[in-house]
Amino acid sequence: MRGKPSKGFYSEEELKKHKKGKDYVAKRKAEQETLNNYDQLEADRIPSHLCYYGKKEWKRIIPLLKELPIAELDRELIETYCMLHGSRRRLQKDIQKNGETYKTYDEEGNLIGIRKNPSYDMLLSTVKEIRMIANQLGMTMNSRLELAVPDQEQEEDEILKLLKG
User: Fold this and answer.
1) CB-based contacts of 154: which residues, under 8 Å, 6+ apart?
2) Around Cβ 154, how many Cβ atoms within 10 Å?
3) What is the pTM of this model?
């Protein structure tokens, strides 16, 4: 979470030094101020409905998320992320215990075939959901880079303006 400031976290001094001009500074300041319009996340109490692993993940991510512009509106998304994290851990344990596949037999004990453990498909879909939510909350490297790096189109527009005079 360290390094180059994100779009919403430029200090006033940094904005004044910006080479894009006063209009850019005013726009960024206005954007930053809109982030303060929402109630900050009240995350002191861990939701009681989370499982052991979900609560553990809550304790791990909340201090990190408080550095981002996460509002009370995002609580449901964070709780869902932690719930899915707990589910992922349980599914991983099931797969470790029972394997990715299992054998099926008929009444006489003859091998009919090998089937995929349903927990494996559930694990894959859980991981996809976790990845999507993590991206929305700014918890992935790419999502943090999008916050930190100016939009490519804006830079190209500025270059075109300079070239045209």
Assistant:
1) none
2) 11
3) 0.65
